[in-house]
Amino acid sequence: MRPAPLLLGMLLASQAQAMEALDDSAMSSVSGQGGISLETSSQGWSADSVSYSEDGRSLNLRDVSNRAANGGASTSSSTLDVEDGQLQIEHAASPQVLAVNNIEMDGSSKSFGAFRAFYTLGATLHLKGGGASGVSGVSIDDSRLSLTDVTFYYRDNGFDLIVKGLSFDTYLDNAYLDIVNGGSGQEVKLNLGDARFIGTVGGIGLDLAHGDPAASPVTPNAPDLRDAGASRSFGRLSMDLRLGGSLSIASGGASGDGIRIRPDLNIGSSLFQYQDEGILRAENFSGTLRSLGGLTLDLAQDVGGSYAQVAFQDLKLNATLGGLIIGNPTNQKLGSLAIDLNFADDGARQNWLKLRPGGDPNSGAKGLTADISWNMANSSVSLTDNGNSMWFSGLRTHGTGQLTLDLTKSCAGGASTGCYAGTQSDMSKGNYNGHFDGLRLGLANIKGGYSFDGLRVGSSTAPLQGGTELLVLMEIFPAYDFTLNGQITLLPGGKSGDGLRYSADFYFTDARAAITVDENGKGLWLAGTNYDMHFRDGSVDVSNNGVELSKGSYWSKLDVADLRWGDRSTGTSLGRLVLKRFEQGSTLALSSGGAGALCVGGSGANAGACSAGGGRWEDRGNEGVSVKLKNVFVRDTAVESSSNGVATDEKRNQIVWETNRVNGAAGSGSQLVVDNFYTSDGNPSDPNANSYGFNADINLDVAPTKVCTNSGGSCTTVTPDPLGFAVNGRIHFKEVNVERLQHVHPTGGAVTSMYGIKVQNADIGTNLTATPIN
Which residues touch 159 (CB under 8 Å, ≥6 apart)? Predict the structure, then answer.
């Protein structure tokens, strides 16, 4: 704007006094500039209650305030100007703190908890009229919104979840805000144009020792931490997302009043990274999120009380994680991982989430309960390795159940305010409710299942083929139906540095799992299965070697009523199977990079040596996935309980095969028992050493291989070499012991057939490639 040519100062002394012009000496010290500048100073604001009501229900924020973070007055500066037909706004403010001391629904005695957020807000906006139509609405160009220096505290029953080092920068260009006619009437539509979102999370931690719900952190940079482990973190996140598409908001929920949000978003050429000591990074992240019917938000009530419901009749999520690295940034890459998920209502199978105040009944009056229902139709997951692609095709899943989320503290170290001891650690007895320090996710009556049709290699329309059986070693079944109860409790910090620790208990009942299955549902099934799993002091870390999951102390019992061949329900029963495991120090490690170059069908470190040794040299490229499983089976040194001569200890390694049962009743037939098996390092000078374990090293690739067909008794080579799902494996251990092999009669008891079995120094290599038969 041009400087004003004249600035007059006027002094009004009284109604009777004339106005006087300022003299030249006074005028010489005054300069002018167009626009408006606002400087504000405030003690902040507060409200006893902020409520949102619809259809007779209400969501209430109690004791809400926004004040200066330093406890004094908050200041802000804003300028408004008009240049080149745009309204230009610059805003900057001193650090603030927003607090909500309770979040309730309809005056319930339970609540969602409380939160407090320290933040600094800034903005640069360039606005003009016109919108997408050029007639009405607002267009946004070359603008930025920033939220920096954020520390967020969520409080539940006196304990804090702390998000530190949080910052967001949103850049908007060629964006429009309009009121348009949508599919269900008028809606507010934000067209993102060329948007960019840059965000970081410095760390997420827990402070479990705050016993005073009224206590509050002093400053965001020096929080009032009471717990010795509160400085540990779940890890750091960073993202740089390039966004497009639109987001529309309309009135009216699934029924009556409410809100409907219709996303049509796309992400392109973006970066996502999680960092511990190593990294998980997608260097080229792209995808779409779209719902034609929209997501609805409603407040409602049923026999369980008031709830907020989020529902959607359809939702499509498509994402590609390109240039995926697991572990060291200089490592080989995994390739690219793509997901295509399609959620759609189908009769009684629907997609909704009902959020209720209060979590687990034994975790205080605060927290979160979510009733869930989901139905995912024909979807897929694909892996591209050196330009070769493989699809897990026809992925489907559905189910219902309830989740609870709480911050909890156990009484393991002695009773204290806010802790919960639990009364039963055996979930199979039906009343498991143990609690541990950490962020607890409870699982109640999750009834669901999943299945996928099979593998497709080369293209998404290639013939279906087998090969999924090769993943059963990692307990990934081609099909699985189950009812799940249990919990998993997380603590920040892994074995060292960032990461996470966990204790968990899962109890699967009424389960049916496929070991192998064809397109007609025929195969080998684990029917009538109960499976309980217990983890104590496990951890997950990302290091330069990849993602490593440690089971900690682990014990489980898999009880299969019928091992069926054929149909899952009516196939021939091969008998009952029981597998009990007791492990300490077992791990699963996942890293990017597959088998690389290797000798198939022979031995040799290079192509010449491989050929001379009768093998075939294959180079499967520098991408793929490597998995390392290590199971350390522990010996049970004393029998604590037994039945009919067979040990029934909970923590014991044991295999039971039972046949000739009376009406299918467990324990009524003849049994073969492999009892108390365990691993050992086989060291004569230290017979108790047991760290090497039972190892399975697996390299997964999508690669071409040699295939021949049997034609008249001769092998006819298929050309060109077909693509396949290639698995290069190695099984190795130093020593596996079996204390006894028993034969058991239902009335005559157990007889030990063999005692003290040892298998030593095994190292077995295998190379399998699954290709379609066509």
Answer: 206, 207, 208, 209, 210, 407, 408, 409, 418
